[in-house]
Amino acid sequence: ENNIPKAVLFRGPFGTGKTTLAEIFAAAIQSSLPDGNPNWETLSTKTILNETFNRDTIQFNGAEMRGVESMEALIAQTKTRPMYDKRRVIIIEEADQISATAMKSLLKVLESPDPYTVFILLSMEDKKGIPESIESRCQVYKVKPSDILSTMKALRAVMEKTGDWTNPEIPDSF
Predict the structure, then answer these.
(1) For residue 122, which of 25, 41, 102, 135 sits 20 to 30 Å off, Cα-Cα?
(2) Cα–Cα–Cα angle for 86, 89, 92, rounded to 5 degrees
(3) How many CB atoms lie within 10 A of CB 104?
(4) Are 90 and 62 in contact (CB under 8 A)?
(5) Through-space distance between the first and last CA atoms of the chain, rounded to whole angstroms
(6) What's the pLDDT tens digit per position in 69-118?
(7) For 75, phi and psi rounded to 5 degrees?
């Protein structure tokens, strides 16, 4: 339905896949087919999944966003239309580490979002570091660790659904 939120917050402990999830989400935003499914073969999708980010998806580290200058660079990105893709996607890792000054600038951007910009914020902190005023403008998803058995069951369910579980080309052991 092309109903993509302007800001998403993935929150969870280290090693739960927040960055990977953000990159998959960004790739899906940048390359959706008419049926809503992502097209994994576009140049934009490949640059995101290869983590080169040389098109309209940008990745920042919040721990490095300490002053007005760093936020000015980010804000400048939101004032221009995307060059290659439908949207500009800005991923901010460690968003809870952004300085107070930079956080105020981010809030201003989120208060009146550009229609072509989507923010994906990542945080390991639970209810700390990111002000309520920013969090309230995000769709928040809590990412939890998954044990190996649950991961294997989920993978098997997907493979059974796609018909790959019985594919003879996929080895049954490594």
Answers:
(1) 41
(2) 180
(3) 15
(4) no
(5) 41
(6) 777 777 777 778 888 888 899 999 999 988 888 888 889 888 887 888 99
(7) -65, -40
